[in-house]
Design brief:
Blueprint lengths: L7 H12 L5 E6 L5 H9 L3 E6 L3 H5 L3 H6 L3 E5 L2 E5 L11
Length: 96
Amino acid sequence: MSDFDLDLRTVEERIDEEFELDGEIVLGVLDGTTPADEWLEAVSTGNVLVLCVEGEVNELASGFARDVKESGGNLVHFRGFLVVTPPGIDVDADRL
């Protein structure tokens, strides 16, 4: 595999400048230990969640999934991860 040089700090600054994003990308584990209200609060303040699912995704996300969808957000389960976005941030799954 060849070396790949990626300056994430520069990319983040450019994204902030061009798109004026208010939220962050929050990495976490969806295993039932974090209350659903905490995940919902994170999404409602403009954050994108990328959660490693440890268990049954439908059961673990049941406490916040409906509220996210009803508010216009998105939930996408992909390869053991659940991506949760607030309203206005779509997930493009066309290449899957």
